[in-house]
Amino acid sequence: MRIQRIQWAGIMLECEGEVLMIDPIYDSYQSSFFGQPLEELYELSSFKKPDLIAITHLHSDHFDPVSIRTHFGRNVRIIVPKQSVEQIKLAGFHNVTGLEVGESFLQGNFEIFAESSVDGLGDKQVSWVVRSKEQTIIHCGDTLWHGFWWKITEKYGPIDVAFLPINAAVVREEGMIPSNQPICMGPEQAIAAAKILRCKILVPIHYGTFHNPPIYNETIAPLHRLLNSQADFEIKVLKNKEDFTLDC
To answer: Which CATH architecture has domain 2-238?
Structure first.
């Protein structure tokens, strides 16, 4: 399996010619909220065309309908949390499947399972567990810490590669009662989750690209803290477009 980081939380998986993307974005995120990107982002056309796109949730930094339509067309196959199907169709897509937690979808060499995740703003979100022959990966969107890790490990573990958010963003949007609490996991929580998942490789996602005080506030030095944590597994940092290979 070839694994490539797209950007932000986006990844691409490729096995024997089959291509799966998870949360690919380019430039239709809500810039008034996230601000301008702090690193170069690449058009989705610079990546291989996917056979399937899986979306963890519909926040604009995880679902980019304009770029997906432009580069992959309205008929690209998309899987989403079941409650989000109608919104995806309203965004102009025709080949959409919704999954509840525990349900799965087969696409060539990939079997994709919808699993538990907790969204920091209370919106519907899933994690995607992907199996391809002997490999198992999990992509956790921008989840908060939750108590489902042990059940996910019991069902799918050990996990070969875990893509986990680490920027512990605090949001202070106008009209919202401020909580001053992170809306996704930070580096220490990502380490703890990876240990429970019995993962072999942790790839950090959802950090570094956006920091827009006072509205969207990334935690201090998330990558440095991650790399200085105690871990008995590999932490693999991928730059945008960088890849590595696991046996399929």
So the answer is: 4-Layer Sandwich (3.60)
